[in-house]
Design a protein that fits this description.
This protein is an alpha+beta fold and 563 residues long. 36% of the residues lie in helices and 25% in strands. It has a nine-stranded antiparallel beta sheet, with no helix packed on it. It has a five-stranded mixed beta sheet with strand order 4-3-2-1-7, with no helix packed on it. The two termini are 32 Å apart. Residues 74-361 form the Membrane insertase YidC N-terminal domain.
């Protein structure tokens, strides 16, 4: 199989891959886990409409005590996070990731604002909520009104952590202190809800944590094709030790609702590069559910909830409910230390087994070179070195086939339209000259998964976001702004065609192959520039290797004829 056919193979396989991914979103879903009788009570409670947001609009205040009155916004700032907590419910309603600007910070745009993940604006509403419910007693849900001592908290120099206490009290004697603790250089927020029972009767209830958001607005077809973020998964995801990583698109909330009891798991909302996750204690059996709030409105909200086990506090006693909240980037190599399976939020899909090693290798090369673009080039050279023997056989076969073109043309003239005899004669010729026309298949089967895996790495890895290369390329995760790399790739492809034999190819196919460089140039024009850099360098090194092998084959044949 010649190099030009290789390009066509990649195009067809990539289109097939994209179609398969879209089909998987609509039709492939893991089977629901069996529900035991012991789980039924907890699951029923998780879907109980007494929890605001389960069946009633989330904006309707609960009827719990102290639910009326003005709310305040409390801001807490560390070296990496700035959170806004609404005393209405004590929910985290806004988050800014201080180390990640919305756009690349350049001389023209030095003050790009940080990425805002959680947001209290209606159009992009996204909140991390938590609360308590009780069937026989007072409990503050995520609409109850809490009290904070002040509205500004900052991690001071030399301090390792900062805490925010929110207090709720009930005339019956129930008091709840909700404490958020943020640590230096950490995207994990610790939550502790302490229930102090000052009443005359025992208190029993449950704690819950949930994520609620409005999906991103739909974009036009051009942005949907050219923006890498549009190809990333956007929806809910969760993890269990039994079934590992699962995910659910917002459009599938009604068709495939989640209702499972899991020990040692977590729930999250994913988007491109960033995510938010609630992580309950690993030893607790927690019921995970999904639902849609206001499904019949123009802006429905999608909710994923973790409903914890029963809590009890005798009169004069207290009980604590703890959980962790992650708000930050998909940083590979660090997330699994926070919770098992958290690195799977990078969402490489079935290519994880290829993409994760590629990411690790790229990270090591970046540590050596200090530049992600240089790391990509070094990765090309390593892959080419590893596959040298295979590509050597491919190019030597191609060089010999190029030499056979005049003889193949003579066979075509001899047998005319008799394709059967033509194919038989060509196979005899290949056998006699020890040429294998299928020599290029194995390198393709190996390099195509690498190509797709690297596409996922360059599209999903936060480390490459806004990572500059040299010159005009300021972001390897975005397309080349001046299309230099796609043009270089077209030139490499044209040069490759000149060295590639068209043996046995009919005129129509040959004409089609001539326009392939242009098609691939357009195809790659909107790909991440890091990926186009990889493929351009890969094509250029393949071209150099093919030229060298073709030249050595020519010299060997010339030497054989003159000796």
């Amino acid at each position: 199989m010649n190099q030009t056919r290789t390009f066509l193979f990649f195009a067809l396989m990539f289109v097939a891959y994209m179609l398969w991914m879209e089909w998987e979103k609509d039709y492939v879903t893991p089977p629901p886990a069996p529900t035991s009788a012991a789980q039924t009570t907890g699951q029923a409670a998780a879907g109980d409409s007494s929890i605001p947001g389960a069946a009633a609009p989330a904006g309707v205040p609960s009827e719990s005590a102290n639910a009326t009155g003005p709310a305040q916004l409390v801001t807490v700032t560390t070296d990496v996070l700035r959170l806004t907590i609404n005393t209405r419910g004590g929910s985290v309603v806004r988050s800014e990731l201080l180390a990640y600007p919305s756009e690349p910070r350049t001389k023209k745009n030095p003050d790009s604002p940080p990425v805002r993940l959680l947001d209290d604006e209606d159009a992009q509403f996204f909140a991390a909520q938590d609360g308590l419910v009780s069937s026989a007693g007072a409990a503050p849900d995520h609409n109850a009104l809490f009290h904070a001592e002040k509205t500004e908290y900052t991690l001071a120099d030399g301090e390792k952590s900062v805490s925010v206490d929110l207090t709720w009290t009930d005339p019956s004697g129930i008091k709840v202190v909700k404490r958020y603790t943020l640590k230096r250089n950490d995207y994990v927020v610790d939550l502790d809800q302490r229930i102090e029972n000052g009443s005359a009767t025992a208190w029993t209830g449950n704690a819950y944590q949930q994520l609620q958001r409005v999906p991103a607005a739909k974009v036009n077809w051009f942005k949907a094709y050219t923006d890498p973020a549009q190809h990333s998964f956007f929806g809910a995801a969760w993890y269990s030790p039994e079934t590992k990583f699962d995910q659910l698109l917002f459009n599938d909330f009604a068709k495939k609702p989640l209702n499972r009891q899991i020990t040692g798991g977590w729930i999250s909302m994913l988007q491109h590069y960033f995510f938010v996750a609630w992580i309950p204690p690993a030893d607790q059996a927690v019921t995970y559910t999904t639902t849609t709030v206001n499904p019949d409105t123009a802006n429905p909200r999608y909710l994923v909830r973790a409903f914890g086990p029963s809590l009890q506090a005798a009169p004069g006693q207290s009980v604590d409910s703890v959980a962790r909240l992650y708000i930050g980037p998909k940083l590979q190599g660090t997330l699994d230390a926070i919770a098992p399976g958290l690195e799977l939020t990078s969402n490489y899909g079935w290519l994880t087994i290829i993409a994760q090693p590629l990411h690790w290798l790229l990270s090591q090369l970046h540590a050596i070179s200090g530049n992600w673009g240089v790391a990509i080039i070094l990765l090309v050279l390593l892959i080419k070195a590893a596959l040298y023997k295979l590509t050597d056989a491919q190019f030597r076969s191609g060089a010999r086939m190029r030499k056979l073109q005049p003889r193949v043309q003579a066979l075509k003239e001899r047998y005319g339209d008799d394709k059967v005899k033509m194919q038989q004669a060509m196979m005899e010729l290949y056998k006699k000259e020890k040429v294998n026309p299928m020599a290029g298949c194995l390198p393709i089967l190996i390099t195509f998964p690498i190509f797709i895996g690297l596409l996922r790495v360059l599209s999903e890895s936060i480390e490459l976001r806004h990572a500059p290369f040299f010159g005009w390329i300021h972001d390897l995760s975005a397309s080349d702004p001046y299309y230099v790399l796609p043009v270089l790739y077209m030139m490499v492809t044209l040069a490759t065609q000149r060295l590639t034999p068209m043996t046995g190819m009919d005129p129509t196919q040959a004409k089609m192959m001539k326009v392939m460089p242009l098609l691939f140039g357009v195809f790659f024009a909107f790909f991440p520039s890091g990926l186009v850099l990889y493929w351009t360098v890969n094509g250029a090194t393949s071209l150099l290797q093919q030229w060298w092998i073709t030249r050595s084959v020519d010299r060997a044949e010339l030497k054989a004829r003159t000796s």
